[in-house]
Structure formats: structure tokens, C-alpha cells
Q: What sequence folds into this?
């Protein structure tokens, strides 16, 4: 090697290094400059999104993402964190704040076949409901929540998710059952011993034996998350009561063929560490019993092995059909179902996990109580910097652009959908804290429901009326004739007339037709009708774009759809007849509004239709694979040249799909204008993704995994329209009163309900209820406290009530539910009752730290509590339980 | 006669290498599918996913349970057909093999390319430039730096520089990604002068020049990690190798004749060591194909290693096999060409020579 070459190589290396460092420093300096930094005070009311631009990048490593927060590289992270260590880092950070959500739950799934497995002849103790039920007492859920989840979980005993409205509605029932099933090893052991002997098993050297062999339990333990530790913990408990446990550690892929794909009668497993995810608040969990405890729940072999008691089976079915007339009736059924489900315990619920979603302190946005940030519908409408408007938000997601984007049957990936939601507007939004829908592109709705159906209304943006019967008008559209390209009317299909359970009249926003698509075209009725047709056409075998994968969705829709009619075109008023009901009229109205709505213009979809008709691309993965063509993407890849060709042809021919019908709602001039604007859009933005949301898709960089969306200037809503949903108003409850009460004398307790130190408005509280449990755990009192104004409530226990208490420690349990947030708040206050004359007057108080304060001393209220949730107490009052 | 002998050797060598490729690829198909058990896994996954998705759909709630189950069964059947799970694995395994050997890489079953294509060819080609850029840059720097520094050190055995390199050689016992984490912590997290990862600035610069410079900037940390993780051991290895040749009698004679050290290095050390150097270089080049799973993940680099990892996780056999068969062909071709090259660069080697003399 010559000296010259050596010097050249070294110089080149230094040049690359120096250049890189220079660029790095330069880019830091540039990134420090906001795109625009206008002061909010100087602004006129801002329209559309608060921020100018959002840049999404991919970052799968959560720990690294936290470092990036500190370095100012990212502002929001789209993945919930469940690692306690990372959570502690977030708490210690001066720049990171967080949102919380209840995204998943863990449970133990039991194999109910038995008493012996037909294939192996081995004993399956979990065939016996009493043994399954005993596991509820065997497991310490507080330990699971505190130690295994590091506090990022809430104990869960019942089929109801602890953060959803049904749990709040049934708070008193739930609390009683939770106390009944609270941790009691001895009780569990006694029941297991009794039942095992009944099965013919013998305890030899502290090990259960059956027919001379140890009773071996095969435990499928998932390894990807905290379920590994849960599995080990439960396995140890089972070993402690005499079982021999074969711990089989498996991933999802390894365990699926065994627990859900295999026949449970084969005896390849006894217990499985199950987990379930909810991405949105479910306001009606009445179907949980049918879904999780009866063979009707799923077609899988495991569900077919379920043998619920006849009564549980019946109650579950009634609840699943919503076959009740009043909320009182529903509550009775739910109460019974909860009790029976716990006795059945074919699965034992353990915890609801708490997800922590980090963001920089200066950035706020609405997170969903169930789906967090990635599942939030309102995030694009609420994301902003605390100080000022404009600027760029840097967003990181664990993965993106995993599948092609098309609005018909494209990527269903949660992180892709999160971005596309930023570009698409909806007719109504679910409240991120209650799940109740609020109108966005709808002004009002009239919901008519057949008398006797259990539907209620909470919000004022709609009306609810009960009518004896609902006749569908003969000229309403009920189906689509793919051959004739025209709607089929009720008169043609039901000559004797047709009835429906609901009629919903949707009054869309007055300025609907003034709003524009991102490519500059105005929304029109043709867009709505095209989308409506497409839903029928893709599932119709006679259609040129028939797709087998679209059939189930169409069948589902047709099973309840009873007709639709346009009452007025401007402003748009549509009535929709359906047999589908939901407990909330808001959900009915929002669902029906979305039946006749679109956030994709017809001229964009028409190109896809042309490509699919010519068998070059397909909307769905299923059809693309069948035709061996590409899955249609409107944003990148080999689909774009195909769409370009079809755009050119459509423009040349003035192509209007479904002309027979759609021709009535648009003109040839508009057709040409639409394609021309789309062509200009494609030339500028290099993609075909056009919608009507607060942001438009500015650029996509698929290999680099970067997506840029920018504020749409044409979005006309005020930026602060949804700002009230940025923070859940979870009630903070404090109780004070005498810590020692003499039996037979009155006692008075004060309750303070507040949010951020201010009294919680009484009108926003759904109910405040208290329960008194005596020292034996028996419920002796269930009532509502009296309001004393300004967030204060009073509980008075009269002499007769305290006379029913026995000597010892009693629990006063407060349950508070709000109309503003589904998450109920609980507070426990312990007091002692004494028979004899005692020097009284000791006052106690429970505070956010969960301790009873009395003078200088502190008495711990409840020993086992979720440590991290204590720290979250300002956000989650469940911590106070 | 020489031509026939050469031709016979070439044909036999090509045939034996092809059989090796066939066996290797079929074994890869069997392993990737766990001998067919993956079908069971995928069927169960489909069942689980379809069931969960459908039951979470509020719109299904008004349908009778039997109808819901029918819809679920229909969806499951549709998905199984789409993925070819309705055909026995054995039949599919031969179809995979035949497609792979003819390089008809076909369609992926689960993955799509970043741009949205299902073609395995597109999926692989899309990630290839990023992989070649990162590992090509790093491996070439490592290779040539190691060769030249080693040659330099072999002539300065025992010097402080030689001792330093020997002392630093154990640093390569840790993988590059391990150093990558530290480099990110130091230069991105603490000093904030280099990016945390990715291939380009976020958002990407719009001009080509700035884009290119940004990519260079993003290359610094991963390339540095690879250099720290492999450079010193490479220098040490080559230095030891060259030392053996440096002590040969003919080198000593050359030194005694007073030839300049550059000429000694080129003529008397480099030339006889050329076959192993070429072999090493060739294998370094084809190793680029596989990328590096963890390093790419640490630096969020969109390379082939992460792609293969994703494909394995999703049991996407066509992508796995596509990647394997290209590597197998590249390997076979390299071995084949090296046989020829050896004969060209080393006069002691004869292709297709008599028994006991040929390679």
C-alpha cells in the first residue's frame, strides 16, 4: 500500500465523518426552527387542525423512543407502554407526560372437557366448575397487578371490563362479588380438596394422584408479555395445593394450534394464559356471557366444549339478544349472569392492564380510554402545542405502511389506520371517555324505535321516540340490481309491505355540500350514493367487481337493513330503516349516519373500480391473491401507474360509474372537472389519496417508513371544536368521618367529589352510591348519599343501621360514576364499630394517597393496592379501591 | 483434450452445485414450514384472528348466533383458501421448490412490499439498495482497511501500533449492534449530533443532493458500529495470515536483496495470498445479501435482515424461500467462479487436472 493511497483513504473517511457531523448539526439547527410559530393570542379563531404538519416515522423500540423524547426528536409515541421500568422513566422525565388507557385484560382459560380426557384417560380437574371457581380464591389479583404488572394493571374479577360503562352501572353488584371472591387460599384449598376427593383422586405425599399416577396439569404459558410471570405464579399456586404442573412456555403461534385450533378432548392442555384486547369503549357488554361462557360464543372447538348451567345459558342468550324491556330488567339479568358466570368460571379474569402513552408535555391530544392514542378517533382534531398554533408534530409509531392503503378494503393495521383517520372526516365521533357518539357532519337525528325495545338517549343532539310499529315506505331503496345498475325498492321485494324496528332520520350539516375534498372538488350527493352502491355491488355475484370477501359484510348489513330514502337533497336529510338496535340512541344514529356517508370521493374510487374490473388490481387482499394481481394501493407502488392509465382513460371518456343511477346526481361537466382536479393532485402530491379530513396526505416515503400529513386549508371547522375531550374528568373522591362508631348510635360521613381540586358538577354525575360491609364482609347497607352542594355529599347512618353492624372493622365503599367518563371512581373508608362505651371522636379521612389520616398518625386504609396506580391517582380513581 | 477435460469438470461441478442448491432449498422449505406443522399454526391463527375481529364487530350483534358462526366459518375458509392452506403441504412444498429453482419467486402470502406490492421480487428488491448501501459500505471499508493495515502491521511486527491492534482485537467479541446501542446513546441521545436511526432525515429532504447527504449522515453510526465490531479482529486475522507469509524464505531473500518494502508486499506477500483474499472478498460480498437483523432493528434501517425476520415471524414461505434461493444461487455461483479464478491467479492450481492435483 503506497503512502498516497493510505492518505487518500484516511482523508475520505475523515471527510465523510466531518460532513456527517456538519449535516447533523445543521439539521438540528433547522429542526429547532418551527414551521410557523404564531402566538395564539394574535390569531383569529383557527380553522381546521391546530398544527400545520405531522410527520410520522417508525420506531419499534420503546426504550429508544423515550430517549428520542428527551432529545426532542419525537413529540408523541403511538404505542402504549406496559413495562413498569419504562413507566418509571416517564415519570422521572421532565419533558414527557402521558395518557392512559385500558387496552387489554388477562385471564386463565380452562379446558372444561372431562372428568377425564377421552384420548389420554388423564384426569382434568377443571371439568368441575367448583374447582374452576375455587381458582378465584386461590389467585391474589392484587399481587398480579402490583408485582407482576408493577402496578400498571387493575385487578379484575368479573367478565365486565373495569373501565367500561357496564361496570360502572353495576358497581354495587360488582363490589359485592369482588369482596365475595377476594383472595382466600384456605377456602380455595378446602374446595379443591373436597372436589378432588369426589373425583376419586387421592392426596399422596402432598401430591394429588388419580389411578395411581400424579395428576399432571399441562399449563400453556404465553411468553411474550407479563403472562409468562402470571403463568409461573399460578403454576406455583397449583403446585402448592397438590397438583403436578407441566409448564409449557409458548408463543402465540405455538400455542394457537393447541388451545384454539385443537380439540380440547385431546387433553393437550388444561390451562392457558389468555388475553383479550378492546380497541374502543364497549358501552354494552351484555353479550360477554354468551361470547365467553357458552358454545354460541365462537365456532372453535374449545367453545363447543363449554357446558354452562341451563340458567346461565338462558340468561346469556337473553342478554345477547337484548331481549329485555327496561334497564331494571337488564340489571337483574346482568346481576344474575355475573353471579352464574363466576360460579361457572370457565375462565378466571385476573387484571385489566393499564397502558401508558407518552407524549411531550407541550403537546396535547385526545386519547381513547380503551384504545389509547393509536385507537383515538379524535386525535387529529385535538392534537396541538399547548403554546401557540401551527408548527410540526413529530410522531413515532412502532410500525407503519405494512399493507397497501385503499379506503375500501386496504390496510387494517392499527397504526396505518391511525394516520388515515387524520385525513378522513366522519359523520359522528365516539366520545373517547364514554363511547357515546357526538355529531360531526350531522346536525341532528330523529330516532324512532319500536315500543318495548330497551333504548335510551343521553345527549341532546338527537331525539328518541317510541312508536307502536314502523312501516317501511314502498319507494325506499332496499337492495341493488347489479345487472341493471339501479336500486331495488321495497315495493319490488316486499309486495305485502315491510316493517322495521327502527327509523332514523339523519339531518346532515347544512354546509355539507360546501365542504371540499382535498383535491379541491366539492362534496356532492353523488359521492354518498356511489359509496352506498359500492357496499352492495362488491358483494353481489352479478357485479363486475364481485368480491367473495365482501359477501359476509353485505350479508350482515342486509340482515338488518330495511330501507333508505332521501328526503331532502340540500341540506341533506335521509331516513334509514333498520332492525339493528343498540342500547344508546346515539349509537343507532351514528351507525345509520355512517351507512349513508363517505369520506372518499367517487372519482377516486372509480379508478379502483376500473382497475378491478380490468383485473389489474383488486381492493381486497383476498381477491388480489385470487386474481394474482396487486392489492390496490392509492399511495405508492405498482398500483399507481395502473391508476394513472385509468385516470387518463376516464378523463378521455368522461367515465361515470353506475351511470344509470349516478347520472341523476352529477353532470358530465362535473365528471370532467373532478378527474382534472384529481390529475393535478396526482401530479403535485404523487399519490391518489384524497379525502376530507383536517389533514391531507402530503407525502409518503414507503421504504424510509415516513409519512407526512399537513393541515388542510379547506377544512372549515373551528380548531377548538373538540378541545374538551383532551382530558378525562375522572372524579376524585374523598371520604371523612368518625373512625370509631358505637353500635346503635348515628354516624355521619362527608364525601367530597372533585376534579383537579374543583367540585365535580352534580349534573355531570350519573350516580353516587355507598355500601357498608360489616366485619364479616356482609352487605348491610346500600344507598345514595345526600347532596350537600359544591361537590360535597353526606352519608348518615342512623341508629338502626349501625345496630346491624357487628363489632370489628367495617368498610364504607363509595362508587361514583360520571356522565363525562366511563371509568367509575371508588373509595374505601374503614371504620370500627364497638359495643361498649369508648372514648370516641377520632376522625379519619381518606385522601389521594389512600391512607386514613387522623391527627398526627396515619392508618393504612388498604394494604394491598396498586402502587403505580397510587401515583396515577389524579387520573384513575380506580386506584382508590 | 484440455478443453474436454475442462468442460467435463465445469459440467460436473455445476451439476454438483445445483444438486446442493436443490437439497439446501428444499431443506429450507421444510424447516421454514416445520415439516408442515406451520399449516396448523396458521389455521389456528386465522381462526383466532377472524373470530376476534368478527366478534368485536358491533354490527354482527343483531344477527342470530348461528348466522354469525356461519359468517365466521365462511371468512375462515376464504382466508385458508387465499393462503393455499386447502392444499396438502407436501404438494405445496414441491411447488415452492420448483418456483424457487426457476427463480419464479411469485407472490408473498402475508407480506407486502413497503410500496404495496405482493411480488416477492419487489419485496426483496425494494430492501436491497438499503442493505447494499449499509453493509456494502461497511464491509468494503472493513475489508480493504483490514487488508492494508494488516499488511502494514505484518511488516512492523511488535510495534506499538501492532500491539494496540492486538489489544483491541477482543472488542470484536461483541456484535456490531451492541456497539450500535452505545453509539446511539452517546452521539444521538447525549451529544445529539447524529440521528437515532433511520435512513434519512424526517421528513426526507426534497432535493436529491440533500437527500444523499442525509443518507450519508445516517450511515455514520451504523457503519461505525460495524467497524468497531469487526475491524480489529479482521486486521488481527489478516496480520497473522500475512505474518506467516512474511517469514517465508523468499521474502527474506527479497529483503536481503534490498528490495523496497512496497515491492516486497506486492510481489512476495500479496500475490501468493491472493486466492484466500479473493475468497474472503467474494464471501464478504454475498454475505451482504442476508443483512443483519438486530443491527438493522437497532438503527431502524430498512434492510433485508429485518425483512427476513418479519417473513419468518409471519411464516411467509415464498419470501423466506425467495431470499434463501437467491443466496444459495449466489453462493453456488461464487464457489464455481472461485474455482476458475484460483486457476487464473495461482499458477499452482489447475482446473480439472488429474486426480490428486486438481481442485
A:
Amino acid at each position: 500500500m503506497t503512502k498516497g493511497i493510505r492518505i487518500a483513504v484516511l482523508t475520505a473517511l475523515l471527510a465523510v465523518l466531518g460532513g456527517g457531523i456538519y449535516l447533523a448539526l445543521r439539521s438540528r439547527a433547522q429542526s429547532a426552527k418551527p414551521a410557523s410559530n404564531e402566538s395564539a393570542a394574535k390569531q383569529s379563531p383557527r380553522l381546521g387542525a391546530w398544527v400545520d404538519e405531522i410527520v410520522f416515522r417508525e420506531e419499534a423500540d420503546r426504550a429508544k423512543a423515550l430517549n428520542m423524547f428527551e432529545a426532542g426528536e419525537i413529540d408523541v409515541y403511538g404505542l402504549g407502554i406496559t413495562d413498569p421500568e419504562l413507566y418509571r422513566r416517564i415519570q422521572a422525565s421532565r419533558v414527557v407526560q402521558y395518557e392512559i388507557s385500558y387496552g387489554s385484560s388477562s385471564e386463565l382459560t380452562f379446558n372444561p372437557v372431562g372428568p377425564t380426557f377421552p384420548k389420554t384417560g388423564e384426569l382434568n380437574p377443571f371439568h368441575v366448575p367448583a374447582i374452576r371457581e375455587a381458582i378465584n380464591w386461590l389467585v391474589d389479583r392484587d399481587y398480579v397487578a402490583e408485582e407482576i404488572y408493577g402496578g400498571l394493571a387493575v385487578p379484575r374479577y368479573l367478565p365486565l371490563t373495569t373501565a367500561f360503562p357496564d361496570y360502572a352501572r353495576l358497581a354495587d353488584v360488582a363490589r359485592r362479588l369482588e369482596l365475595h371472591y377476594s383472595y382466600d387460599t384456605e377456602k380455595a384449598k378446602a374446595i379443591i380438596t373436597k372436589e378432588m376427593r369426589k373425583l376419586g383422586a387421592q392426596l399422596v405425599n402432598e401430591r394429588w394422584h388419580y389411578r395411581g399416577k400424579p395428576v399432571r396439569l399441562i399449563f400453556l404459558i404465553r411468553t411474550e408479555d407479563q403472562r409468562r410471570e402470571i403463568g409461573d405464579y399460578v403454576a406455583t399456586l397449583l403446585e402448592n395445593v397438590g397438583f403436578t404442573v407441566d409448564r409449557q412456555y409458548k408463543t402465540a403461534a405455538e400455542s394457537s394450534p393447541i388451545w384454539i385450533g385443537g380439540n380440547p378432548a385431546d387433553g393437550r392442555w388444561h390451562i392457558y394464559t389468555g388475553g383479550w384486547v378492546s380497541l374502543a369503549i364497549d358501552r354494552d357488554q351484555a353479550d360477554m356471557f354468551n361470547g365467553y361462557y357458552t358454545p354460541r360464543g365462537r365456532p372453535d372447538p374449545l367453545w363447543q366444549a363449554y357446558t354452562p348451567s341451563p340458567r346461565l345459558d338462558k340468561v346469556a342468550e337473553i342478554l345477547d339478544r337484548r331481549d329485555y324491556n327496561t334497564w331494571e330488567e337488564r340489571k337483574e339479568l346482568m346481576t344474575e349472569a355475573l353471579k352464574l358466570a363466576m360460579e361457572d368460571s370457565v375462565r378466571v379474569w385476573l387484571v385489566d392492564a393499564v397502558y401508558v402513552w407518552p407524549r411531550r408535555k407541550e403537546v396535547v391530544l385526545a386519547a381513547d380510554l380503551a384504545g389509547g392514542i393509536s385507537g383515538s378517533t379524535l386525535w387529529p382534531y385535538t392534537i396541538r402545542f399547548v403554546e401557540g398554533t401551527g408548527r410540526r408534530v413529530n410522531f413515532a409509531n412502532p410500525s407503519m405502511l405494512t399493507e397497501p392503503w385503499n379506503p375500501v378494503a386496504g390496510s387494517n393495521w392499527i397504526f396505518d389506520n391511525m394516520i388515515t383517520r387524520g385525513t378522513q372526516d366522519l359523520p359522528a365521533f365516539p366520545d373517547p371517555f364514554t363511547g357515546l357518539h357526538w355529531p360531526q357532519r350531522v346536525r341532528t337525528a330523529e330516532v324512532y324505535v319500536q315500543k318495548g325495545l330497551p333504548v335510551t338517549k343521553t345527549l341532546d343532539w338527537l331525539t328518541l321516540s317510541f312508536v307502536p310499529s314502523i312501516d317501511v315506505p314502498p319507494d325506499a331503496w332496499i337492495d341493488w340490481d347489479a345487472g341493471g345498475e339501479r336500486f331495488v325498492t321495497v315495493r319490488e321485494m316486499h309486495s305485502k309491505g315491510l316493517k322495521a324496528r327502527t327509523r332514523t332520520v339523519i339531518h346532515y350539516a347544512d354546509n355539507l355540500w360546501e365542504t371540499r375534498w382535498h383535491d379541491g372538488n366539492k362534496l356532492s350527493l353523488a359521492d354518498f350514493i356511489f359509496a352506498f352502491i359500492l357496499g352492495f355491488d362488491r358483494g353481489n355475484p352479478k357485479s363486475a367487481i364481485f368480491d367473495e370477501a365482501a359477501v359476509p359484510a353485505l350479508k350482515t348489513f342486509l340482515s338488518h337493513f330495511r330501507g333508505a330514502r332521501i328526503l331532502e337533497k340540500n341540506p341533506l336529510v335521509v331516513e334509514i330503516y333498520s332492525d339493528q338496535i343498540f342500547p344508546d340512541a346515539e349509537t343507532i344514529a351514528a351507525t345509520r349516519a355512517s351507512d349513508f356517508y363517505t369520506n372518499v370521493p367517487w372519482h377516486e374510487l372509480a379508478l379502483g373500480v376500473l382497475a378491478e374490473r380490468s383485473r389489474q388490481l383488486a381492493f381486497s387482499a383476498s381477491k388480489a391473491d385470487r386474481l394474482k394481481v396487486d392489492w390496490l394501493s392509492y399511495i405508492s407502488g405498482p398500483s399507481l401507474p395502473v391508476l394513472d392509465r385509468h385516470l387518463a382513460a376516464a378523463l378521455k371518456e368522461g367515465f361515470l360509474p353506475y351511470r344509470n343511477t349516478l347520472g341523476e346526481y352529477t353532470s358530465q361537466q362535473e365528471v370532467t372537472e373532478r378527474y382534472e382536479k384529481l390529475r393535478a393532485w396526482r401530479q403535485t402530491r404523487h399519490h391518489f389519496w384524497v379525502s376530507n379530513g383536517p389533514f391531507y396526505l402530503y407525502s409518503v416515503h414507503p421504504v424510509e417508513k415516513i409519512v407526512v400529513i399537513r393541515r388542510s386549508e379547506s377544512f372549515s371547522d373551528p380548531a377548538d371544536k373538540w378541545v374538551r375531550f383532551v382530558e378525562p374528568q375522572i372524579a376524585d373522591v374523598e371520604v371523612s368521618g368518625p373512625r370509631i362508631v358505637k353500635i346503635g348510635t348515628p354516624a355521619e360521613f362527608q364525601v367530597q367529589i372533585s376534579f383537579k381540586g374543583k367540585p365535580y358538577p352534580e349534573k355531570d354525575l350519573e350516580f353516587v352510591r355507598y355500601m357498608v360491609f360489616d366485619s364479616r364482609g356482609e352487605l348491610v347497607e346500600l344507598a345514595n348519599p345526600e347532596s350537600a352542594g359544591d361537590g360535597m355529599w353526606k352519608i348518615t347512618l342512623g341508629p338502626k343501621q349501625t345496630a346491624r353492624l357487628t363489632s370489628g372493622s367495617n368498610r364504607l365503599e363509595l362508587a361514583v360514576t360520571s356522565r363525562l367518563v366511563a371509568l367509575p371512581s371508588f373509595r374505601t373508608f374503614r371504620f370500627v364499630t364497638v359495643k361498649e362505651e369508648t372514648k370516641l371522636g377520632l376522625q379519619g379521612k381518606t385522601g389521594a394517597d389512600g391512607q386514613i389520616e387522623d391527627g398526627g398518625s396515619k392508618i393504612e386504609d388498604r394494604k394491598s393496592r396498586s402502587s403505580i396506580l397510587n401515583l396515577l391517582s389524579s387520573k384513575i380513581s380506580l386506584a382508590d379501591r | 483434450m484440455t478443453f474436454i477435460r475442462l468442460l467435463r469438470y465445469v459440467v460436473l461441478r455445476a451439476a454438483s452445485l445445483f444438486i446442493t442448491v436443490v437439497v439446501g432449498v428444499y431443506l429450507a422449505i421444510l424447516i421454514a414450514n416445520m415439516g408442515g406443522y406451520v399449516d396448523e399454526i396458521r389455521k389456528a391463527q386465522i381462526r383466532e384472528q377472524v373470530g376476534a375481529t368478527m366478534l368485536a364487530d358491533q354490527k354482527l350483534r343483531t344477527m342470530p348466533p348461528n348466522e354469525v358462526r356461519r359468517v365466521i366459518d365462511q371468512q375462515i375458509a376464504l382466508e385458508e383458501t387465499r393462503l393455499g392452506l386447502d392444499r396438502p403441504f407436501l404438494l405445496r412444498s414441491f411447488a415452492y421448490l420448483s418456483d424457487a429453482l426457476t427463480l419464479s419467486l411469485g407472490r408473498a402470502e402475508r407480506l407486502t412490499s413497503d410500496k404495496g406490492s405482493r411480488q416477492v421480487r419487489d419485496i426483496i428488491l425494494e430492501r436491497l439498495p438499503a442493505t447494499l448501501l449499509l453493509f456494502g459500505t461497511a464491509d468494503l471499508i472493513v475489508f480493504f482497511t483490514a487488508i492494508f493495515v494488516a499488511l502494514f502491521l505484518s511488516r512492523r511486527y511488535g510495534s506499538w501500533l501492532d500491539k494496540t491492534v492486538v489489544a483491541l482485537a477482543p472488542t470484536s467479541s461483541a456484535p456490531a449492534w451492541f456497539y450500535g446501542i452505545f453509539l446511539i446513546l452517546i452521539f444521538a441521545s447525549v451529544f445529539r449530533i447524529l440521528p437515532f436511526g433511520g435512513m434519512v432525515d424526517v421528513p426526507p429532504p426534497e432535493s436529491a443532493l440533500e437527500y444523499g447527504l442525509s443518507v450519508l449522515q445516517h450511515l455514520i453510526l451504523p457503519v461505525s458500529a460495524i467497524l468497531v465490531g469487526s475491524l480489529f479482529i479482521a486486521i488481527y486475522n489478516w496480520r497473522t495470515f500475512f505474518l506467516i507469509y512474511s517469514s517465508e524464505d523468499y521474502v527474506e531473500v527479497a529483503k536481503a536483496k534490498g528490495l523496497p518494502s512496497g515491492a516486497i508486499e506486492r510481489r512476495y506477500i500479496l500475490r501468493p495470498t491472493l486466492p484466500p483474499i479473493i475468497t474472503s472478498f467474494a464471501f464478504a460480498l454475498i454475505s451482504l445479501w442476508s443483512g443483519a437483523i438486530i443491527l438493522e432493528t437497532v438503527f431502524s434501517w430498512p434492510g433485508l435482515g429485518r425483512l427476513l425476520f418479519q417473513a419468518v415471524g409471519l411464516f411467509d414461505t415464498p419470501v423466506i424461500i425467495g431470499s434463501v434461493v437467491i443466496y444459495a444461487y449466489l453462493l453456488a455461483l461464487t464457489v464455481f467462479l472461485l474455482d476458475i479464478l484460483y486457476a487464473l491467479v495461482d499458477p499452482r492450481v489447475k482446473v480439472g487436472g488429474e486426480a490428486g492435483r486438481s481442485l
Remarks:
- The longest strand of chain A covers residues 96-110.
- Confidence is low (pLDDT under 50) at residues 22-42, 847-881 of chain A.
